[in-house]
Queue: 3 jobs
Job 1
Amino acid sequence: MDALSLLWWIPALPFLGAAVNGLLVRNGQKGLVTFVGLAAPGASMLLGLTAIWQYATGLAPEPLRQAVYSWTVGEMSIDVAFRLDPLSAVMTFVVTVVGFLIHVYSVGYMGREEGYRRYFSFLNLFMGAMLLLVLGSNFLVMFVGWEGVGLCSYLLIGYYFDQEFPPEAGKKAFVVNRIGDFAFLVGMLALFASFGTLEFGEITERVLAAPEIAKAPYVFGLSLAGFVTLCLFIGAMGKSAQIPLYVWLPDAMAGPTPVSALIHAATMVTAGVYMVVRTNVLYQLAPEISLFVAGIGAATAIFAATIGLAQNDIKKVLAYSTVSQLGYMFLAAGVGAYVAAIFHLATHAFFKALLFLGSGSVIHAMGGEQDMQKMGGLRKHLPLTYPTYLIATLAIAGIPPLAGFFSKDEILAGAFAGHHHLIWGVGILTAGLTACYMFRSVYLTFHGSFRGSHEQEHHLHESPKVMTVPLVLLALGAVTAGWIGIPTGLWEMAGFADHNVLHHFLSPVIATLPGVDTGHHLSHSTELLLMLVSVAVALGGWLVAKRLWGGERGLAADRTFAERLPFVQRLLANKYYVDELYDRVIVRPLAGLARGCWKIVDTLLIDGALHVGAFVTELTGDLGRFSTTGNIRNYALYFFAGVLLLFWWMIF
Amino acid sequence: MNPEYSVSTAELASLAPEIVLTVGGSLLLLLEAFAPRLRRSFHWLGLAFVAAASWYVATLPAGPSFAGLIEASSLTAAFSQAVLLAAALGLLVAPGYLSRERLLAGEYPALLLWCAAGLLLLVRGVELLTLFVALELLSLCLYGLAGFHRRIASSAEAALKYFLMGAFVSAFLVYGIALVYGETGSTRIEGIAAALARGQGSPGLLLLGFLLLACGFAFKLSLVPFHAWAPDVYQGAPSPVVAFLSVAPKVASVVVLVRLVLLVAESPLGGKWPDLLALLAAASMLVGNLFALVQRDIKRMLAYSGIAHMGYVMIPLAAPGPHSWQPVLVYLVAYVLMNAGAFAIVTMIYGQPGEQHAISSLAGWGYRFPLLAGCLTVCMVSLAGVPPTAGFLGKYFVFLHAIEHGRLGLALIGIATSLIGVAFYLRVVYMLYMKPEVAAPEGFVIDFGGRVGAVIAAGGSLLLGIWPQRFLSWVAASFERL
Amino acid sequence: MSVPISWYLLLAAALFAIGAIGALTRRNGIAIFLSIELMLNAANLTLAAYSRLLGDRAGQMVVFFVLAVAAAEAAVGLALFIGIFRLRRTIDVNRINLLRW
Amino acid sequence: MSTSFLDLLLGDTITRFVFFPTVAGLPLLLMRRAPAATVKIYALVVSLVELALIGLFVVGRWGSTGALLARDAVLPWIDLAPLSVVYEVGLDGISLPLVLLTGLLLPIVLLGSWNGIDKHWGGYAFSMLLLTTGILGALVALDLFVFYVFWEVMLIPMYLIIGIWGAERRIYAAVKFFLFTMAGSLLMLIGILWLGWTYGRLTGVWSFRYEDLLRLELPIDQQLWLFGAFAIAFAIKVPMFPVHTWLPDAHVEAPTGGSVILAGILLKLGTYGFLRFALPLFPHAADRLTPWLLALALVGIVYGALVAWVQVDMKKLVAYSSIAHLGFVMLGIMACDLVAWQGALIQMVNHGLSTGALFLLVGMLYERRHTKKFEDFGGLAKPMPWFATVLVFSTLASVGLPALNGFVGEFMILVGTFKAGWRWFAALSTVGVVLAAIYLLKMLQQTIWGPITREENESVPDLGLREALTLAPLCVLMLWIGVAPKPFLEPSRPALAALLEDYRSRCAEPAPDEPLLAPARVSAGSPTFAAGVVDQEAGR
């Protein structure tokens, strides 16, 4: 089978599934819904994997571009085209595999929901849009996917639409994303206006051929590259939940848990990272913006990690953890470690999806309860969920040889190598915090004794196979995914040939620009030292967590903390009051302005002026008409006076 | 006998339309006396006379007659036909009203026909005395018609006011004639023109004389500031009379006024005359529309609207020349149709003549009188000057003339005021269709003739707007000599 | 040596003015009408004077017509006065103002 | 051989589909006592025949590569030399999309008013048909006088539709609509007359023909005045800030069908007027005033969006959103770039589709609940899943979600504006994109999402078959244009390109000090109509 010529079917199949489920199938036909809902992404996954395999084994040109049809005409001729290159291959792999597993999991998790059909339709739609995003050959197709995933995110966060909060959260997600998208759009406009094309390949070629165009001053003292990358990064901030646009992601947890796993952990939120890496040639030409990216990434990483420490909702912890890890990825991209960013993206997809699905399993067992304060000691009730959750926690904490260790280590090494020591410091601190709050969640959830109601305890049960099998498969990924990117240094120290597969695979998409030095090399000893430091920090974080929350200690530490440092605790628990700040500083003044426009400008000024004008006209008429007194003598006088006045006027 | 004063058959024949009308009127009066049972057919007879007059007008050979006291040309024919159209409409809508008010009598058509004869004479007269006599002939008839509803005070009051004002103004007119005659030595337009060209006479007295003449006819046209009588008379006089009164005398008076203005403007006295007309036009448009805006009585509103429309008609005279005739004629024909149409419908659907003709009582009647309300709507839209109606065609030519001859300011005033106009014409439409009915109409009589009149007026207004070609080629033919 | 034409004209103008003022100031309808007749006659006087000056009969012709018309006007006018007096019991024009504004 | 109007009316012509609705609608006025169903079906059949007439006419000429698809024989209309006016209509790529949209919306509007209009259905349908004639006529007029007449013909039926079948404050809204529009169009009339006169002064023969008037080269001060007159008329129709306040009132008070036609097509005549008349006739003035108009467009985008956001009435929200959307169209038009123009043109259609659908949906809701206030809704997705689906779909199209139609237009407008050098306007107007999401999602939030707060909302019936049929074509087109806009963009391109080239070349030369007459262009017409004329006259 020549999967490469069928490239466009990879996103098309899920769309088809969504359409069939959405329009043709009826609510009651649950079996059919499940079949369609799984077959579409499943087929897409198989097709994707085959295509990647055929591509990687050299059956395809380098890189592969497939134009389906031309979208517009004339001066702005843009094709709907797909592109398979190492970067999109990695992304496609992650998206289809993780996506499919989560679909399978959903069959169990959502099985009793009334909106089962709707759910699968949206989920398939999401898969389609996400694949459009990663496989698109130009910014336009990417943007279609970009907004498409945003839409699905909106719809799925608001899945429980008959409650107050979820649709609100969905709206918030969409709007905040839109703020980013607007910058993305401006960036696209600047690119198109400068290069006349939106094709990734062409833009990269042009920039490589003549970097001075991109370096030429554009606006605000920024170069073209600087302006475009800044815009694109603002877009990424929205999608990937970076400061200051991260606020939607924690709220997004209002959606069903598999959705959180798929969209708000594994795939959609990483789109920003993908985009930055995709346009790395421009970022390399805009060092100041790259540094900004790294700074934002680092700040987000530690900021979210601190909030994660004080959250009691298990999904909220994971959400802030996601924000924090995404910050890590941007940190990597900002310091020029693009491969590391994608590496972390991939490993994160596995362990974070696993964490979410695990938490889903917990919530499922708890009958919808998400508050860790009411959990505890679940490990004996959830024999499969617990170990997989633990594996994922170890992975995210960066314990070797699990996936997170390698990817996180590569990021930190990249930061250190680029002499961004402060950023490295923040990164390492975040690593410790990550280990700490993640193990906190493990201890509070699975260890100690149960703190919920008897009724809940009675109902505790392990999830069905259809949910646990994906957990196991993902756990496998969380363990092994890191091995494709074992650092060159380790291979060499161990005396092997360099088997850093990912690096070699991805190197073609990382542009090498003359005069831009990306190859900061660390000595093997430094690299090893750094690894040890990060492992030590991770273990330290774990130990702290164990001391505070391990065993039967439960919530005692939290209470002590709240008593000793009430201010800090409240600050963290309330997420630094950022939502409130935004509300006061942006939303309300804007609403006030809008109301002012309506009531004052529209109603009072414009309509008022009109009404006054009409009134004055009418008043003139109304006063004037009394000149027609009804008395004939007055009329005669008017005539007489009129004649005299006109005569007077005529002779002078 | 001096052969100069003998009357030839050809000259008599040149008076054929007027003679037909006068004889017709007299005949009807006789029939009223001797065969009152035929009353119901009087108006149809009258129509026949109007038709005959119309035919005579159409076939009249061009040229002066009666030693140049009157003349016939395609131009006078065109305006005469407009007058006759108004007379026909006035006759068509009257019988329903008259029988409803138990006023049916031969005097009505008789007065109307005599009045029409006076109007035709006014259109054709080119000598001051002829004009004066014609004017008095038509005025006296109109006084009688305005007071035709003997039993109600408002009708009598309207007639009296009209009479007193008319008499007052005619004194000025005669004085003007005297001055012009005295300073130029002639009462014929041609003679006056020649004298003016020679520079004969005292400019001051001539100016005064012409001004008095112009004001006299401006009074007939109800131009501001000589307008004040119009609302009272329109409101008080019987509605079918107003349908005639509000249009026919205007057509004829405009002809005289145009003649006068052209006469003066082309003479050494010219100077400020165009500006005078511009002033009158602007004042009329403004006052007419502004005062109409606040009226609650539809007849009174239409009176003020008529004032405004005469302002529009005057726009081409602000840049006088032979080219002024054409827009004036187009506008007047449109005005005859839409204004007479509006009054015709008012005649029929307001059942109580003495009462106020409140616009608000039209509420919801659009569904009660679908045909008449539709016609009224068309007339209102046409009066408002919205295409595709005759009113728009008229405005088009008038504004075009203004722009062509550098009177842009006047055109802009015209536009601003027509916007005000839209507001009150639309009020009628929304009353008809958009308000719930508050009171059922009472005592109304809708007869065949009235319906025909309304349809002719409204249909004509629409036709002139949509397919004006035939009308315009007729107009064009009327001005071939100019 | 005859009276200069201007005297006639001035006399006529004065008569006209008196008539006009009378018409404007009287409240009785008939008085107003009488004043108007005065104005008409002032105009007639002007016509006659000019006619004499110009040695042209046309002016005097006009005078005859004006007189005739004035008579007709008087007839119609009086009829209207009677009509209104029947209905309103007054011919005070200040009070004949049912129709206004 | 001279052609008569009747020949045109009966032949395969533009005239036929322009006048067919009114002529075929006349019997409706006589069917006062006929059963309601008969009247409705008759009107619907007329509208479908009309759609077929337009469709057949266009399909037969689709392949022609030139700018002008067709033109009817020129007839004398107001024949009073030298003040002659001819009746001349033609169809080109610029008017084509809007003509098709009009034809499409007509049956939809009638079907959508099936039960919503509860009195004088025949009169309503006739008003709609008359309105259609006015719209189509204005879109195909190639003579400014003819254009003006059709432009005004639209007023009365719309006035009646708002005033008779509207809501409580309908008369205020109707009069406001009428006066606003009339104020602008009277100024335009003076401008048109002035142009015709100037042409007459230079040639001795008056003319209001578009192609003749395009040859006029006016001094800059005259251009500015005339452009002002035209621009005010069109800006009121669009409507642009600050002359927009009639629109919310008109929309809120108008019946559903009236709103759909108003938003769907009537407003587009303003933007169409800019593109077709104001810019090409007065290039230098337009060029000089471009920044100001762009600024007004931008203000409209942001202002409309902001005000829409705080509305408490669903219909008013959609109305204000129209101001914002039309702001985008104006931005594209004033950018004077081919991509932007294409975007603006397709955006006119898009807005007609998505906003039309939204108004229909609001109307359907109103028929069920007799309220349009947000506070009375909430949680309607539960009882009305299909309604919610279509509402979400149309809203998203309106928001400008990629792969739906709204995005195509907005994107092309932004690209064109940015490319043409108006970077700041393009960048700032994207704020409107963000705000669009805010207010439209607010609408969804308060209507279909959330718990049901009113008992009456528990059992609101979902869309019926008729309603689904009304909405389906709109939805299909929204998706189609979004996914594959090329076939919709292609027919307009040559016409727009020619117009733009002409505009640019005229702007490049300085304005003369005295009015001049440029030599007649190739094949005695503007380049817009030069290429590939399918000469109807030759065929006769």
Note: The longest strand of chain B covers residues 63-65.
Job 2
Amino acid sequence: MEVIFLKDKITTLKNLLFIIMVIGFVSGCNGNQNEFIQGNSTFGISQVHTSKPIDQSVANHAKEKIIAREDITDVKAVNTDKELMAAIKVENFDRFRLKSIEKSVKSDLEKKYPDYKVFVSTDKKIFWELEKVEQRLKKNDMNKKNLKNDLNKLKSLMKEQT
Amino acid sequence: MSNNQKKQLTPVQQEYQKLQKQREIKRPVVKNCIKAFLTGGLICLIGQLISDFYIYYFDFTEQTAGNPTVGTLIFIAMLLTGFGVYDRMAQFGGAGTAVPVTGFGNAVISPAIEHRSEGFVLGVGGNMFKLAGSVILFGVFSAFVIALIKTILIQWGGL
Amino acid sequence: MIYFWAFVVGGLICVIGQIMFDVFKLTPGHTLSALVVIGALLDGFGLYEPLIDFAGAGATVPITSFGNSLVHGAMQEAEKHGLVGVLTGMFEVTSSGISSSIIFAMIGALLFKPKG
Amino acid sequence: MLAGHRTWIFEHKPVILSTGTVGGPFEANGAIPDDFDTLHADLWLGQDSYEKAHKVLFEEACQKAMEKGGIQKDQVQFILAGDLINQITPTSFASRTIGSPYFGLFGACSTSMEGLALGAYIVNTKGAKYLLTGASSHNTAVEKQFRYPTEYGGQKPPTAQWTVTGAGAALLSDSGDGPRVTSATIGRVIDMGLTDPFNMGGAMAPAAVDTIEAHLKERNVEPSYYDLIVTGDLGQIGREVSMDLFKKHGTPISEEQYQDCGLMIYREGQPVLAGASGAGCSATVVYGHLLNRMKKGEFKRMLVVATGALLSPLSFQQNETIPCIAHAVSIEYGGDQLT
């Protein structure tokens, strides 16, 4: 019996493939929309006003400065007393120049905050992680040690090449 | 090359080939390209989803997520090949299934499964790379030449 | 947005492959070998990395990225060890594709019978 | 008796006493499943390799033919058969089981009629009383050898053909009742310089045309003498191209009269692209479907032209062209026959 339905199986397979494709397309477009909305709403970038454990005003200023650039759609940044770490999201078509954007942002920040060791990343992972750190800073459930550990972890992730 | 071959043909052969060409069913190039675009795009989209999954839930960056993504895609290719689905997908998708890394996986896995009847050493081992071997060869050799030239230019040319 | 571009760029690379199949009547072996060489060349000119930054998996999943990462591995080692690095660093980056293919092929051979 | 350069007229008209046809799952799902004696739902036939399954296919076809003809295997004098696998091992191994003296033949997909022509000649000259002839092919065993592993995702162009999983065997005898083999024309190797291994029909068509025209001329009959002129596995393209050639040469063969086994065995909707092919294609269709129809009286005379492409994976890789061959055998049943 199995044999006789071989042909029908193949057609179902084809249909299935087609449906998966359509779903893929639709969900792909949805993804875009979400991101698009996010991109717009981040004109008011997330600010972290806290002095505990470390004052984040440097990070906040840095964020304002970075977001002013046209090719950058979103930014997260955190600072300790010696280090400043920023993760940026780049406008889609400018992603072809990702490496040079990263470099120029880094050198800008280094000029502006010569007292800080600056780290800039375009990586999604760093972006998401920094976002988490910012959230926790906002909720005030972070101490100096925690923050340092987190940033160290991110630094080692950034150093890791494939 | 084909020009050279044409020259060696006798008039009778040339005449027949012309006649044959008219009757040959043409490959539906545009349709095939659209199918390849959709299938290939879908596989890459799935790859992106897997990659983001690894980045989000594990300690991988965009750079390092490549390895587990490739591994996962090849694992999926193994299942699809083993259950006899990948060749059916390929008849639809053409290059859309062959060009992504899943196609490379399929090219290694399918002869391995096929030649199991000749034993693990001579069959599976001996035939595993009979399709993918050329990809590795030309990839490695061209990469070698390119990297060599680039290194020499950087070291001595001060590029 | 990255999903959209991954789809489009990945799809377009496959279309190039399909054209090589159908218009130039190349076998899959020839086509894939040519694409790998193209990937290696693009990286030689420093063009493939920006494409990966732009399209993500759309550029890393097609076989062209195999050529790209071979060159990349070789260049990384070459920076550290000079010319010898070109030889030794080749598989530094790509090893996962090949090793997972081999491992899953063996597992596949143990688990499956060809279905025909 | 030789007529012309390469046509044998069999004055004693050897009889096809009985036939045996065996098919696989894909054939069971095809257009003529009722004309197979045995159909297997399992492509492996319970064996552990495709090649062994291939061997079993032919064994079963031979046994079926002997069973239906009421002949014991020690009464069979010769086996003339072949297949497509390297060194025709499946057929040789099957003949080991049957144990009769054996001629291994290779004519690619034309093997079925090569065997029938030679077998008829031997029986006609009293070289044997009972003789088995046949051919077989197994889709995946052939795919594995000639193309890619079966699970490999290679897209086949619309000119490609589907190799039949099947075996057909015929028991020939000098006396008895059944369709009779009346003449045969042996083909020449014809090469039109085609190189595409996914377009066999186009490459084989000139060989079929050459043999058919030689047969008609040397036997001195009009095409209308035959109710059916049936080619082995030209497929859609090969059939159309050969019709073009007939028109060009002024050979009056009509569309209805000119059929192809490769277009009969599967039904529409099966993913066979341009049609069926393989040594088992002409063997199963002729020994099953067509002889059954003949016995029912649907037609009286047919000319079977099995076509073969004599390439190997190696010759293709070395950029060689595809040489082709076709053998024609006329089978007649009832009605008046030429002497």
Note: Chain D has a mean pLDDT of 93.
Job 3
Amino acid sequence: MESNPILRIATKIMTPYILLFALYVQFHGDYGPGGGFQAGVIFAAAFVLYALIYGIETARLVLPMGVATLCGALGVLIYAGVGIATMLLGGGFLEYGFLDSHDAEHGQHLGILLVELGVLTTVFGVMVVIFYSFAGRGRVEE
Amino acid sequence: MVFNPCKKKVGRWIIEILINVFLLSMLAVTALIVVRTQNLFAVAMLTGIYSLLSATFFTLLDAVDVAFTEAAVGAGVSTVLMLGTLSLVGHRQKKQRTVQIVPLLIVTVTGLILMYGTLDIPPFGEADNPVHLHETTVHYLEESSHETGMPNVVTSVLASYRGYDTMGETTVIFTAMVGVLLLMSGRRKDEIGGTDDGE
Amino acid sequence: MSALSFLNYWFVIILMMVGFYVLIAQGNLVKKIVGLNIFQTSVFILYISAGKITGGTAPILDAQWSVYSNPLPHVLILTAIVVGVATSALGLSLVVRIKEAYGTIEEDEIARMDESL
Amino acid sequence: MMPHLPVMQVMVPLLAAPLCALVRNGRLAWAIAVASSWGAFWIAWEIFQVVHSIGAISYSLGGWTASEGGIEYRIDALGAFVLMVVTLVGAVVTPYALESVRKEVDKSKQALFYAAFLLCLAGLLGIVVTGDMFNVFVFLEISSLSAYALIGLGKDRRALRASYQYLIMGSVGATFIVIGIGMLYVMTGSLNMANLAILLPELPANRTIPVAFAFLTVGVCLKLALFPLHMWLPNAYTFAPSAVTAFIASTATKVAIYVLLRLFYTVFGADYSFLEMQLGTYLLPLSLIAIFSMSLVAIFQTNVKRMLAYSSLAQIGYIILGISLFSSTGMTASILHLFNHAVIKGCLFMALGCVMYRLNSVELDDMMGLGKKMPLTMGAFLVGGFGLIGVPFTAGFISKWYLIQGALEKGLWPVAVLVLLTSLMAVAYIWKVVETVYFSEDPGSVNSDCSEAPLGLLIPTWTLAILCVYFGIDATLTTFGASSAVASLMGIGS
């Protein structure tokens, strides 16, 4: 599979579009189906495809395991951090309205955007870590 | 989103029912084949198909976000995970009797109790079911647009009204990562040697 | 109408029970996880069915529509799907480790190896 | 920060977990874990005081009240009491984990170990504080998933199988709970517990709510390992790393019992659960069988950890027995025992962890004559053992006293006799260990060159041992907490 030129080139062409589609899903979630979780999965899918075609070692050069783990932890911190931030701004936990002191609706928008970003980051990181763990096992370390 | 709104209500209703029954039968057939199939690769693919079929069904039931996620997760992530596992553990299942009495009994009893429980459940699809009349549902549908400014109510409920659940969900995913790393990182040889401890 | 709604619910219950059966009756550890997936996915259908309004549409507000299905079950199930995949990921990684440690993923063979210790 | 205590209770360990995963250094992660578990304990203590001075506290997450469709946190006296139990054990076990984990878990995994440990703690706390049914499920899964991973870390390969069994049983339980919640939701449209408590009695007679009740009860009983749904527990406790066993044995099942009480008393209401569903008639025999059979099985175990695991199953039986009596004395006994058993079992499993640290084994045969070589460790074990039996001046005595009183109040004197009889069975299995440890000659094989466990392990172990004696002599605090918890539950119920 790793030497088939059609697959290699097709992957190269498709990867940016998959990433772009993930971003579309992420930011269009307010208006249509989609959101952080689905976007994270699609984002990770791009890397999974890349790893399948170019080999897991190459994929690890692009996105090392450590970075993916970092993403996994970072997303939770972003999400909970938004909650702490609204608390410090005088509201309740995750009360996004307080993110904007003038316009509560805008605060809600901002809050939802941020937490969806947190979800995206975690889901992306976790999916890649899990894929690396399963696919890398028995080949790299034997 | 699902159907053309101009069509006559009755006609649309009948078509929905027909598709309903069709999808449910397909789901049942897939599930039954899973029970009988011994080749685990085939089982993994069938699970993917099962997820895709249920995603289709979710679309029919107006749950587009759920359908999207089910397709991405059930048919995508789960299948990839399953195939990854099978490449490590082999794909042959040992032959065993398909019908086992005790589990069959447990399952039948559980199923019958559940069916008994649905006898008084509010009818499917009626607009005056308690689920639709409860104040929270009304609040979501009527207030969400000006409280959060989101046309997609699922997103606003997910990220704002029940945002705390979603934080829990993110944590669950993170927990899965921690768990998988704890179990799968490190070298294989050490672990096999380490199993003899305490014997 | 009500007979039909029961058809809908009962069909889903049968699906659930098929998954449950695979989960408790089959000895193969991967197959058990598959059973769990089917069991849970069918429960999701039950929830989503409860949120449906006949003639309604997806809960994305638009001037064109007036009746929307209930968004809350959708949100709950989104969460439950994620929990489900997290559980299967962890379960499958355990299966891989069990295969490495025991050399098999059949429950009866593993039990026999444990008893002989 | 005061009004935010309920959410901080969960957020402190939950935020510390990803930090642990990020630092990658075992020692630093441990420091974070200790700081956050102590912080959680302090918060629980503050909450305990607030609840007892001004009554139940409620907190709307995201600023959305329950009627606006938000998730509500609600802590009453029972919740505050259970928070104390969980955080106390957490605060004692985390310092203990440093030495124990260094010995039992690979160096590269230690930071992640603490992350999983904190997630488990956060999950358990989240279950206790929440007033929303679905939120219970989400946090239940956080605690369960991390528990599966932690158990799977045991050195023995059977730990993997135990973890897998637990995962399967636990997921079935969780799915049953989801089905139950779904049925409640379909019938009422609500997920908020307080709201459900209002809406459920208003429903016309129907066949759905009893089924929901059954599914929720069975689902939670799977999680708390009530006989006959206990198969996953002995292996899980036996093969998990010592610190994990000590933590999970003293908290996870206790929180499941809390969920059960919440369901019976707050959501469905005591009248419905006990009078209409006749819950007592099912739970009473089950708990008696659990106590008797599991104590019996415990006597024949040669692995001390497994022996204590079976003893845990019997103790769960005692707690359920108190609940099934459906009286305030019985309930007080159960809630007291929830605390006392957590302290006692924590102490016992930690003492065994010390043995594991030196011997790499907790088989009885390897422990001959250990009493002389590890006097402090085995002393703590002895104190815990006395507590388990229910010897006067230990915590276990107080809860058994209440339990027997509760049984006699109801005129169930055979039950009281059985409680006494099974305490004798506890004497039998604890004596088996004592005899081996103190009165057998050391054959000079496995443990010939072993010495006392390090202080890092002994101090936490003895903390719980001292608490076990302290709350046996002066039980004012625990009985006060338990009786006000009962009052808050029964008050809502009637």
Note: Chain B has two domains: 1-97, 127-186.
